[in-house]
Specification:
Layout lengths: L2 E3 L20 E3 L8 H10 L5 E3 L12 H7 L5 E3 L4
Organism: Cirrhinus mrigala
Protein name: Toll-like receptor 1
InterPro entries: LRR_dom_sf
Protein backbone atom coordinates (compact mmCIF):
# COMPACT_ATOMS: atom_id res chain seq x y z
CA UNK A 1 0.00 0.00 0.00
CA UNK A 2 1.54 3.30 -1.11
CA UNK A 3 -1.41 5.71 -1.12
CA UNK A 4 -4.33 6.01 1.30
CA UNK A 5 -7.32 8.30 0.82
CA UNK A 6 -9.42 8.90 3.95
CA UNK A 7 -11.26 12.06 2.96
CA UNK A 8 -14.72 13.16 4.13
CA UNK A 9 -15.01 10.74 7.07
CA UNK A 10 -15.43 13.20 9.96
CA UNK A 11 -12.46 11.68 11.82
CA UNK A 12 -11.62 13.49 15.06
CA UNK A 13 -9.04 11.03 16.41
CA UNK A 14 -6.41 8.65 15.06
CA UNK A 15 -6.30 5.11 16.39
CA UNK A 16 -2.71 3.85 16.20
CA UNK A 17 -2.21 0.78 14.03
CA UNK A 18 -1.00 -2.38 15.72
CA UNK A 19 1.59 -2.69 12.94
CA UNK A 20 3.11 0.14 10.92
CA UNK A 21 2.65 0.37 7.18
CA UNK A 22 6.24 0.94 6.02
CA UNK A 23 5.39 1.47 2.34
CA UNK A 24 2.75 4.21 2.60
CA UNK A 25 4.04 7.39 0.98
CA UNK A 26 0.88 9.48 0.46
CA UNK A 27 -1.85 10.09 3.03
CA UNK A 28 -4.80 12.18 1.89
CA UNK A 29 -7.02 12.95 4.90
CA UNK A 30 -8.77 16.10 3.72
CA UNK A 31 -12.16 17.29 4.98
CA UNK A 32 -12.18 15.60 8.37
CA UNK A 33 -12.32 17.10 11.86
CA UNK A 34 -8.80 16.55 13.20
CA UNK A 35 -8.17 19.38 15.66
CA UNK A 36 -5.35 18.17 17.89
CA UNK A 37 -1.75 17.97 16.67
CA UNK A 38 -1.24 15.04 19.07
CA UNK A 39 -3.51 12.99 16.79
CA UNK A 40 -1.57 13.91 13.64
CA UNK A 41 1.75 12.96 15.30
CA UNK A 42 0.57 9.33 15.35
CA UNK A 43 0.90 9.15 11.57
CA UNK A 44 4.69 9.39 11.90
CA UNK A 45 5.07 6.02 13.60
CA UNK A 46 2.27 4.40 11.61
CA UNK A 47 3.67 5.46 8.23
CA UNK A 48 7.47 5.88 8.51
CA UNK A 49 7.95 6.35 4.72
CA UNK A 50 5.28 9.07 4.48
CA UNK A 51 6.49 11.79 2.13
CA UNK A 52 3.21 13.58 1.34
CA UNK A 53 0.53 14.50 3.88
CA UNK A 54 -2.57 16.26 2.61
CA UNK A 55 -4.73 17.53 5.47
CA UNK A 56 -6.63 20.42 3.93
CA UNK A 57 -9.95 21.46 5.44
CA UNK A 58 -9.46 20.05 8.91
CA UNK A 59 -9.76 22.14 12.05
CA UNK A 60 -6.21 21.79 13.31
CA UNK A 61 -5.62 24.14 16.26
CA UNK A 62 -1.83 24.41 16.02
CA UNK A 63 1.41 22.53 15.42
CA UNK A 64 3.18 22.33 18.74
CA UNK A 65 6.47 20.74 17.66
CA UNK A 66 9.71 22.38 16.57
CA UNK A 67 11.18 21.71 13.15
CA UNK A 68 13.69 19.33 14.71
CA UNK A 69 10.97 17.25 16.35
CA UNK A 70 8.92 17.25 13.16
CA UNK A 71 11.91 15.89 11.28
CA UNK A 72 12.21 13.03 13.77
CA UNK A 73 8.46 12.30 13.68
CA UNK A 74 8.25 12.45 9.88
CA UNK A 75 11.77 11.76 8.56
CA UNK A 76 10.71 11.39 4.91
CA UNK A 77 8.04 14.10 4.74
CA UNK A 78 8.65 16.41 1.80
CA UNK A 79 5.20 17.93 1.28
CA UNK A 80 2.37 18.87 3.62
CA UNK A 81 -0.87 20.62 2.70
CA UNK A 82 -2.67 22.25 5.63
CA UNK A 83 -4.83 24.61 3.57
CA UNK A 84 -7.79 25.84 5.58
CA UNK A 85 -6.79 23.76 8.61
Amino acid sequence: LEELFLCLNEYTTVTPATMPCPTLRLLHITDNSLQEWSEVRKFGSMFPALDTLIMANNNLNSIQDSGEILQRLFPNLRSINLHNS
